[in-house]
Amino acid sequence: MNITLNGSPETVTDGMTIAALLQDKGYGDKLVAVAVNGAFTPKSTREEQTLSDGDTVEIVAPMQGG
Amino acid sequence: MTPDTPLIIDDITLQSRLFLGTAGYPSPDILRQAIEASNPGLITVSLRRENAAGKGQDFWGIIKDMNVPVLPNTAGCFTAQEAITTAEMAREVFETNWIKLEVIGDDYLLNPDPFDLLKAAEALTNKGFNVFPYMTDDLILAQRLSDIGCKILMPWGAPIGSGKGLNNPYALQTMRDRFTGHTLVVDAGLGAPSHAAQAMEMGFDAVLLNTAVSKAADPVAMARAFAQATTAGRSAFRAGIIAPQSSARASTPMLDKPFWHQG
Questions:
Q1: Domains plus CATH for chain A?
Q2: What is the pLDDT of residues B106-126, one digit of tens each?
Q3: ipTM of predicted assembly, 2 dp
Q4: How many other CB atoms sit within 10 Å of the CB of residue B255?
Q5: Are B74 and A63 contacting, i.e. CB atoms less than 8 angstroms apart?
Q6: What is the DSSP letter of B116?
Q7: Considering CB atoms only, which of A38, A59, A63 is closest to B46?
Q8: pTM to 2 decimals?
Q9: Helix, strand or coil for residue B120?
Q10: B49 contacts in A (CB within 8 Å)?
Q11: Mutation choice for A interface testing from B45, B73, B92, B102 by most A CBs within 10 A
Q12: How far is A42 from chain B (nearest CA, A)?
């Protein structure tokens, strides 16, 4: 299935969980937060929540800010 | 004069009344030195898309070691919903309920959008956040934000990064006078340390700035200068500044002046 990850198109396994996506894309051990289709997805739900075709995923991390 | 009381937010005692942004420094090491030189009460941070290389992880490593409270922002959000989601992500990553709520309404001047700001502030307050709203200096907006539970208000001095100082001292002074029980912070637009001193002399509880330090020729020295100006302004406010008047008043007493002729 196709998703948009941080603004770029990606093809991933059907029904993939968020935890699996993070692992697959190299974010497994990193301090990040996730939003799917504009909604915050808490860490506690990453193992259960699956992605659907067309989902938009944002993965963010700490950065400089004013 | 009795010693000054520190600024305390949610039981956290802040080390100073200077709040410093972490963006745009020439290098991570200069950022670290600027923080050390100015001893800020808190530092602001943000969330951005992470890449697989983990650039955000390195930044967080530096900040965590500084042991200064962090205030995450929602910079760049243009709608209440974007800001709410960003705040929720920030709470999880930074493990704090504090959020500098920025909802921008205009690309050119980066004006805060008061309408979506209020909407987002209410939603986040209901979710248990302590909202630090980046706002215009409008009194009614301040009242509405206060009504929905904001104890901290952060009116702008001038547009973000403009360095123009306090564009409307009258509005800021009025807000200070009307919201005596709130923690008031001038956020954005400061360029010179004298701007920070001016805000503190007016009785503001703190100042928040970034570009004035990070883009200075010597950011570390400028960070120190802002820290000194913030302290000086605060001391002056507590000492009681004289009221200006239009006529002269001799400071040297006339009594026993030589060549004085009575009548």
A1: 2-60 (3.10.20.30)
A2: 988 899 999 999 999 999 999
A3: 0.95
A4: 6
A5: no
A6: H
A7: A63
A8: 0.93
A9: helix
A10: 6-7, 58-61
A11: B92
A12: 8
